[in-house]
Amino acid sequence: MSKYNALLKNSVYVTTAEARLFDQGQNAKTNFRYLFVPYTSVSDSAFKPTDAQLQDYLDRHKGRYKVEDGRNIEYIVVPETATKEDSAALRQSVAGLAQQFRTAPNDSLFVRSNSDQPYNHAYLSPADLPEKLRQQLPLKVGEVYGPYVENNSLAIYKVTGAKAGAKPAARASHILIKPAGTTPEAKAAAKAKAQDILNKIKAGADFATMARQFGTDGTKDQGGDLGWFDEGRMVPAFSKAVFAASGPGLLPNLVETSFGYHIVKVTAPKTNQTYQIAAVVKNVQPSDATREAAYNKAEQLQASASSLEAFRALPTKDKTLQKQEAKFVTRDAQSVNNLPGSREIVRWAFGFNPDGGSETKVGDVRKFDIGDQHIIAAVTDARSKGTATIESIRPELTAAVRNELKAKQIISKLQGKAGSLEDLAKAVGNGAVVQNAEGVSLNQGTIPNVGFEPEAVGRAFSLKPGQKSAPIQGEQGVLVVESTGVYPATPSDLKTVRLQLAQQRQQRQDGLIYEAIKGQAKVKDNRSKFF
User: Is 332 in contact with 528 (CB distance < 8 Å)?
Assistant: First the structure.
């Protein structure tokens, strides 16, 4: 295989003519004006493609719609989720642990014996403490705090030590005013606005309210709160201003940084105090009764889903159920959508029956128990390798054919019309725009404010200045281009260009060789039956 790949990769050759054409495509530029009539300017409701039109389009563009084997899978997930009763039982248990924690002779051993998370003996600054503990600052050594609800867990904390740390931490809020540009005038305008806001806060305006109204960064929704941070974590000018403050309160002057102008309020002055925390964290887990109830529910659902129609009716009978769909999962897919550990469902959908029965077919329904989830899955459609069918890609085909029909209608309005691009725009009506495009390269193929339109760009390079093209059926709409100038590329070192092209082609060879061999091989992939 190595020799075979090397033989083909080393056969890559780039001619001088190819290098010259590539260089021109990269570096030659054109300026042009264009009339653009987007397909979105014409109502979709006026065009209802027939199946015959869809099939005709599919036949003309088979290369675009090559597909691998695929299965449509619909599924319902019954999770083993902790109930309110499970949470209440855990809260009662953790409350009892909190009492024991207060008198525990060995805190680290107590954590290792009772916590779902490992013991951490490090000293933490306020910037690294859990938010619930920050709200209790200053903390007392020996005190137990909690229990607190944190995400899907309950936590109790015992302060086992306190000492001065190497870096101070502080908490602050800010209102950032960014300049609209880099000019002196833009900076002056931003500074004046920031100063005005600062003056209003000094006069009694609420800082958080002003932050929500005028802030220009992600903290505005939190009233400008930056939380706790260590010295040096923020940009130097900002950090210096905050850590120079002797107490909490509004800083009297603006702080200028590379981001703009900041109005700053120190909400907790710097402190070197750090704390050693022993944390007992218990994750809320479903009880055995809850797990059994989920399992029994999934069993009942499977028994009720004797057919595809019965399976699809399940969510209408039980509003707590939600049906989801994975469109045309491939044979080698490792999961169904984002379901963890669901490779077994893919194997089943492609014919492997773990019970040893007949091969899976469209309409079959089966239950899978994966981790803490029970999945009722159904195969709802299948496609074979080759060209896609109309039904499998109907929305995509309909949009493509509808755009073709719109293009014919728009072009018919432009056909035979003379005059400027502005005159043609009037003939089309609403939605038509006339704009300029400058410095467009041939290989780029993209028109600013329109998108990828290679045919229109190519046509612009073929026109003489002042010459207009015929209407062009594009990707995003119909275009008419009028050249204002073509600027050939400055000759480059063709040896360098040839080397660059050869390297690019060689880098693609591994993938191209594999696909070529795969296309010629008469091999049926049965790995899904075993892996």
Answer: yes
